[in-house]
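TA notes, week 10

Several of you asked for a full example with nothing omitted. So below is the full record: C-alpha cells for the whole chain, then the designed sequence directly under it. When grading your own attempts, check the secondary structure regions first.
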C-alpha cells in the first residue's frame, strides 16, 4: 500500500509543479488584463462645450502656418492638391488676434481633394489655459474650407481629455482672400471623464 502511494504522490507533486510552472509562465507572458474604470479614477462621463477662434496666418513675417511640401502639379491644381502645411495656430477666446490665448492648434493640413479646396486635418489642440493647461484633443477630419459649416471628429485626448470623443464645428469668421489669412470660429463638443 505505502509502496504504491509514494510514486502516485510524486506524480501528483510533479503534476502540481507542472501546472504551477505553466501558470507562472502564463502570468509572465500576459500583457493585458481587465480593469474596472474606478481603478483609473474614472467616474461619470461628461460633456463639455469649448468655444474659441483659430488664427491661420500664412502671410507676413511671422506666419503660423507654412507650406512644407507639394507635388510638382500642385501649383497648376485649382484645389492646390498635394500641398502640405504645418501649423502652430493660436486659439483665442475672441476673434481678435490679441484676445486671450487659450491654446494652439498644432499639426498638419493638406489638400486632399482634386475637385474643391478640401483639407485633411491632422492636429492637436494643445490647451494652455486654466484647468485644461497641458491637456490635448486630437482631431482627424475633412475640412472643405469654403463650406459654411465643417465638422471634424475628435478622436481622442490626453490629460483632462483622456478617453475623449466628440466633434468640432468650424465656421470661417473672416478670410483675407489676398493674403490667405483666416480666422475660424470653433465650437467643440466633447465627451470625457
Ligand atoms: C512631375 O513629376 C513626375 C515624376 O517625376 C513627372 O513624370 C512629371 O512629368 C512631372 N510633371 C510636371 C508638370 O512637371
Ligand atoms: C509653387 O508656388 C509656390 C508659391 O508661389 C512656390 O514657392 C513654389 O516653388 C512653386 N512650386 C513649384 C513646384 O513650382
Ligand atoms: C501652463 O502650464 C505650464 C507648465 O506647467 C506653466 O509654465 C504655465 O505657466 C501654465 N500656464 C497658465 C496660463 O497657467
Amino acid at each position: 500500500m505505502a509502496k504504491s502511494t509514494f510514486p502516485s504522490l510524486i506524480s501528483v507533486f510533479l503534476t502540481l509543479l507542472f501546472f504551477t510552472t505553466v501558470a507562472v509562465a502564463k502570468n509572465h507572458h500576459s500583457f493585458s488584463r481587465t480593469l474596472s474604470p474606478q481603478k483609473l479614477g474614472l467616474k461619470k462621463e461628461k460633456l463639455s462645450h469649448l468655444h474659441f477662434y483659430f488664427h491661420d496666418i500664412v502671410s507676413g513675417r511671422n506666419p503660423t502656418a507654412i507650406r512644407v511640401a507639394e507635388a510638382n502639379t500642385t501649383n497648376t491644381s485649382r484645389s492646390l492638391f498635394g500641398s502640405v502645411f504645418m501649423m502652430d495656430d493660436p486659439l483665442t477666446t475672441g476673434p481678435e488676434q490679441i484676445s486671450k490665448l487659450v491654446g494652439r492648434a498644432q499639426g498638419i493640413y493638406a489638400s486632399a481633394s482634386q475637385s474643391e479646396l478640401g483639407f485633411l486635418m491632422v492636429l492637436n489642440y494643445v490647451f494652455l489655459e486654466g484647468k485644461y493647461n497641458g491637456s490635448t484633443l486630437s482631431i482627424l477630419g475633412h475640412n472643405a474650407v469654403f463650406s459654411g459649416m465643417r465638422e471634424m471628429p475628435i478622436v481622442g485626448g490626453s490629460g483632462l481629455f483622456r478617453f475623449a470623443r466628440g466633434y468640432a464645428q468650424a465656421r470661417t469668421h473672416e478670410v483675407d482672400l489676398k493674403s490667405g489669412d483666416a480666422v475660424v470660429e470653433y465650437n467643440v463638443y466633447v465627451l470625457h471623464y
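The mean pLDDT is 91. Use that as a sanity check on your answer.
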